[in-house]
Specification:
By secondary structure, this protein is mainly beta. It has one helix at 57-60, and strands at residues 2-3, 6-7, 34-39, 44-48, 68-77, 81-86, 91-96, 108-119, 125-133. The protein has two domains: 2-52, no CATH class; 57-133, OB fold (Dihydrolipoamide Acetyltransferase, E2P). It contains one helix and nine strands; from the N terminus they run ββββαβββββ. The strands form three sheets. A five-stranded mixed β-barrel has the order 5-6-7-9-8. Strands 1-2 form a two-stranded antiparallel ribbon. A two-stranded antiparallel ribbon has the order 3-4.
C-alpha cells in the first residue's frame, strides 16, 4: 500500500473483518487506511483498512445462543463444512438441521446462534450458527447436462 508516496505494509488479515474476503482493488484506487504500527528498526509502517470499517462484532456481541439471524451461504466445502455470511457481513461456520437439504452457495438462510460469537485474544471473531430454514425456499441447481438423459 502506498500512502502519500510512502510504501506501507498491510497484513492480509487487516484488509477486512471477514478473513475470507478477497482483496478486490485496482492499482491506483483510493482506500481509507489507519496506521496501526511503525517499526523504526526495519523502517516499516503497518496500516489497516479493517480498522476504518464498522466492526461487525458490536452488533453480534448482543446476540445470545438461540437468537435468530439471517445470512447467505458463502462456501460449501466437503472438508471444512458450510460457511454463512451473516447480515452484519461476518463469515462464520455453520451446520444445518438434519431435515433440511444441503445448501448451495448463494442460498439465503435463517440461522440460530449455536455458539456464542466472541472475539479471541488475537482479535479474530469466532462463532457458529445452525441453519434452520430457507425463507425463500430451496434454490434448485441447474444441471446443464440433464437434456442428455431425457
Amino acid at each position: 500500500v502506498n500512502v502519500e508516496g510512502q510504501d506501507c505494509f498491510m497484513p492480509r488479515i487487516e484488509w477486512s473483518w471477514n478473513e475470507r474476503d478477497a482483496i478486490n482493488i485496482s492499482e491506483g484506487e483510493t482506500i481509507d487506511v489507519k496506521i496501526i504500527r511503525i517499526d523504526h528498526e526495519k523502517e516499516r509502517i503497518f496500516v489497516s483498512r479493517r480498522q476504518t470499517l464498522p466492526d461487525p462484532y458490536k452488533f453480534l456481541e448482543r446476540l445470545d445462543v438461540g437468537d435468530s439471524i439471517a445470512g447467505k451461504v458463502s462456501r460449501v466445502d466437503p472438508k471444512h463444512g458450510i460457511f454463512v455470511t451473516l447480515e452484519s457481513g461476518l463469515d462464520v461456520k455453520a451446520s444445518k438441521v438434519k431435515a433440511l437439504e444441503e445448501p448451495v452457495i448463494g442460498d439465503m438462510v435463517n440461522c440460530r446462534i449455536g455458539q456464542k460469537i466472541v472475539r479471541t485474544d488475537d482479535g479474530r471473531i469466532k462463532g457458529r450458527v445452525v441453519i434452520v430454514k430457507y425463507p425463500n425456499g430451496k434454490r434448485k441447481v441447474k444441471d446443464l447436462g440433464q437434456f442428455l438423459f431425457e
